[in-house]
Design goal:
7 strands; 5 helices
Length: about 150
């Protein structure tokens, strides 16, 4: 079995996500400021996005009540940003599909081809192995994103 080559997301997909997905459930969001999930979610908030923490080990993160699971979130979600191990991705994608989210984003280092295919078949935008903060910053400076 060869190494999978991950294609970068198209500029159109990134711009659609950044411009239209304003409410983001962050699965695996930690209250520890040294964790990447915390830094990325704090940046999301600073850019005007609504962040919904999803972590069974947290009560509040970044001043927002945390949900135990993604399926427990009771409000509309546009994007699910995932900070979990690859072996935990598929159930999150299934929950995202069931909740009717628009997009799923797997952070850097998280790759799950089967979950990507399942999400795409369900009509979701899907990004994997990319940092939301880095991609947003790059496009914001080069394209004038809000």
């Amino acid at each position: 079995m060869g190494i999978a080559v991950i294609s970068p997301p198209s500029l159109n997909v990134l711009e659609t996500i950044f411009n239209e997905c304003r409410t983001i459930a962050v699965v695996g969001l930690s209250s520890n400021p040294s964790r990447p999930s915390h830094a990325v979610a704090r940046y999301m908030q600073e850019q005007g996005y609504r962040v919904i923490p999803v972590n069974p080990n947290e009560a509040y993160v970044l001043g927002v009540p945390a949900y135990f699971t993604l399926s427990a979130v009771s409000e509309p979600i546009d994007l699910v940003s995932v900070f979990r191990r690859p072996d935990q991705v598929e159930p999150i994608v299934l929950d995202g599909i069931a909740l009717g989210v628009r997009a799923i984003w797997l952070q850097e280092g998280i790759i799950h081809e089967q979950a990507a295919e399942r999400a795409r078949r369900a009509g979701l935008l899907f990004v994997m192995d990319r940092c939301w903060l880095k991609e947003h910053s790059r496009l914001r400076s080069s394209r004038g994103l809000s």
